[in-house]
Amino acid sequence: MAVVPYKDTPDDKKSQVAHMFNSIAGKYDFLNHFLSAGVDIYWRKKAIDLVARNKPQLILDIATGTGDFAIEAMRLKPRKVVGVDISEGMLAVGREKLQKKQLSHVIELKTGDSENLEFEANQFDAVMAAFGVRNFENLEKGLAEMYRVLKPGGQVVILEFSKPKAFPFKQGYNFYFKHILPVFGKLISKDRAAYTYLPESVQAFPDGPDFTTILTQVGFKFTAWHPLTFGISSIYVGTK
């Protein structure tokens, strides 16, 4: 059974995820930085370092949210970054950030379903995602779409939460995720389900070698897994 934010509603996961992010959009950036003690900024920088390898000019940012990953990609000096997300609330916050940073001419944020992308095949030099693929209703379908729109030789870079294995980080991480994070998440965002869903979705996600296996199954070559911060998050890469 799929892990969903709101267990008392019959809506599908995609609808629930969109509603959840619309609900917390105004607090999302603050909570990201607060609950990770700012380490999420470092993680994005490390992921963009890997995106930089092929010097991409046209980049697709899947599940772009408020656009932080797309904004970080600006240091690569791309010609264009397109961000796609199912939450219009998150995109609205992102567009305000782009206007303030005067980046709207380079970064375009669009409402869209990452599992049914509107783009033609073989279009983007790089496809990236930060903390988004875990929320796909159909993981394989979403990854296959990322593969489809990527140019031959192009690279996918995915940043996602993972599960530490070593003592004592595993125990401390699990305690924080299950008991501390939901409390602060509810207090600040007023949506307890969102920060109860987070640890549940991370626990259910096929991280590490299991995820690189799925990348290979949908067609990616030269897949690799780069754990970060004792395995709290990971970067995955692959080539079309």
From TrEMBL:
HAMAP family membership: MenG_UbiE_methyltr
Family from the record: Belongs to the class I-like SAM-binding methyltransferase superfamily. MenG/UbiE family.
E.C. designation(s): 2.1.1.163
EC main group: transferase
NCBIfam families: MenG_MenH_UbiE, PRK00216.1-5
GO biological process, one term: methylation
GO MF assignments: demethylmenaquinone methyltransferase activity
Residues that span the membrane, as ranges: none
Entry keyword set: Menaquinone biosynthesis, Methyltransferase, S-adenosyl-L-methionine, Transferase
Catalytic reaction(s) noted: a 2-demethylmenaquinol + S-adenosyl-L-methionine = a menaquinol + S-adenosyl-L-homocysteine + H(+)
UniProt organism field: Adhaeribacter pallidiroseus
Database matches in CDD domains: AdoMet_MTases
Highest taxon listed in the record's lineage: Bacteria
Pathway(s) this gene product operates in, as recorded in its UniProt entry: Quinol/quinone metabolism; menaquinone biosynthesis; menaquinol from 1,4-dihydroxy-2-naphthoate: step 2/2
Residues at which S-adenosyl-L-methionine binds: 66, 85, 113-114
Name the UniProt record assigns to this protein: Demethylmenaquinone methyltransferase
